[in-house]
Amino acid sequence: MRLVKLGLASVNTTVGAFIRNTDRVLAQARKMAAEGVTLGVFQEQVIAGYPAEDMVQWQGFIERQWPELERFARETASLPTVFILGVSIAQQGLRLNCAAVVAGGRVLGLVPKEKLPTYSVFYETRTFGRGYPGMAETHRGVPLGDYLFQFDFGVVAPEVCEDIWSPEGPMRRRTYSGAELVVNLSASPFRLGFVDTRRELIATRAADHQCTIAYCNAVGSNDGLIFDGGGFLNQNGRHVMETPRFQEGYSTAVVDLDRTLRLRGEATTWRVDRESWLSEGGQRVPVLDCTQAVHTRRESLAYPVPAHRSFFLPGPDQRRPAREALCEDILDALALGVGDYFEKTRAFKVLGIALSGGRDSLLTLLIAHRYAKKARPEDPGSLIRAFYMPSRYSSDATSDAAETITRELGVPFQIVSIDEAFERERAIAQKMLGDKPVTPITEQNIQARLRAQRMWNWSNSCGGLFLQTGNMSEKSVGYTTIGGDLMGALAVIANVPKTVVMYLLDYLQEKTGSEGIRKVLAKPAGPELAHNQVGEEELMPFPVLDACFYLHAGEKLTPAEMLQALTAMFPEVEAPRLSGYVEKFVRLFQQSIYKWVQSPLSLHIGNLDLDRERALQLPVVTGTEWMRDT
Predict the structure, then answer these.
(1) Beta-sheet pairing, 212-217 with 232-235
(2) Quick one: fold of 322-533?
(3) Does the annotation mark 161 as catalytic?
(4) CA distances (Å), 138 to each of 71, 92, 355, in order?
(5) Is 445 annotated as ligand-binding?
(6) Which residue is catalytic, options 5, 98, 114, 161?
(7) pLDDT digits (tens, 9 = 90+) for 107-121
(8) Residue 44 annotated in active site
(9) What dotted CATH number matches 3-289?
(10) 518-566 pLDDT, tens per residue?
């Protein structure tokens, strides 16, 4: 047996906080060593924080990381553990995103990332250079390039994030060159359902390349990107360990690397493929001898046996029901996003929400409170302020719902009418218009803008983080007010479709039995900016709206193609009505781009987000002729 204890860490970093980030890494590294960890793994860009975006263009931002890497090496010099962690370097004018191998007080080598994503939320090719097969350079006297590392426990192949996502990535040539343990450092943002994709991918790569894969991922939120952690350890296709998500820390497990070699020898297909690769001139990756750098202590490691003490029977099923998993993941991700933005900016003292008594502001409040329960478990409500600002169109039902939920949560609540100010602003607008009347839509917008203005005034005076409460569906069609409910410092649910908002509230009501949630759900969704206003009557049924958004913005279908898909999806709806919904959605969507590009920073939970600087980059000024049938 060749037993190795692996530690997979997730560190909640802040971009640019090099000293604090390194301190957090050191704290976990010392604990790992105390627990007898052989190899400790930390995420991509753990010293700098991720994503640094264009900050890497500052030479000082790159250069200042190296002293922290050296400090990490010095302060772990006496530990009998190998560590691999993420760092950026500047090399001959290029910025390289590297995995640094550290042991015995020295940086033993640097392996740069080869696959640079420039899609969805990623822009790495804009700022970083690539590693490449056969790269063999030095940086500050340290080997830099395409290398493997031989330790007294086995041969290790470091790589960074996207490198694992390509079947033609570096893992193939590195395992063919003798790598037994592939270590992947990642900063992969949370996306709905994506954890299953990661798990399957890692199992596939470990089986295809007949190796052990140790994958660690970042945790925490920087700006609008949320990282859920969740590392994996997989040996030759067999799942060994999954680390907790949405929390900082590390987990450990023991593997027998002799098992990896034995299975490799038994896999005739792998052996034949390797022989073909070598015979066709495959370039072997050089191995750096690091056996004298550190002497690991593995004598006390025990063979990894199943916790339920059977090699043949399945262990207890700990999977959550699909509904619970979906809802809890979304809620955990958004609460983490709110909390990290609130804490890491260091600009705010309290969270503020304008409650309408409706679904969107209610869900935003519940997410903020979810964070507050972790930050101030003794009195979570003290971290939040809620305001209800009624006009003549506000109903007693929404007022009662807002008051009930805040009382249940222990959140301070104030009612501040805007009716007098509404009359004043409407009169001023009428004076400015002269003979032209103030339109009904303007009257609605006046109310929304008054509420936003008051929230900003409150925020400026008390250091409050003004949370914007609009959802993705209504934002996509401009059912929102510039200077009004579109405004805020952080858009919490701006990338959550309306049907998902309602699904989450149903789940929370069932789970908690909250009377406040029940009262909100009892009333049809509507902004209450006019008499008897119902959102679905003014727009379309929300399931149809969300389907239109997904098909047009996500699947990139034309109106004719959308109609075909919707006809199959909603056979109970008459064809002319569906056609009208499609036409209305496309018209409103194209007309509303100018609105949502002005919205505040939003939290990302999927691949399809309304954020011009992240996922969906669309021109504001555009024509629609290309969508017409020919």
Answers:
(1) antiparallel
(2) Rossmann fold (3.40.50)
(3) yes
(4) 20, 11, 58
(5) yes
(6) 161
(7) 999 999 999 998 888
(8) yes
(9) 3.60.110.10
(10) 999 999 988 888 888 899 999 999 999 999 999 999 999 999 999 999 9
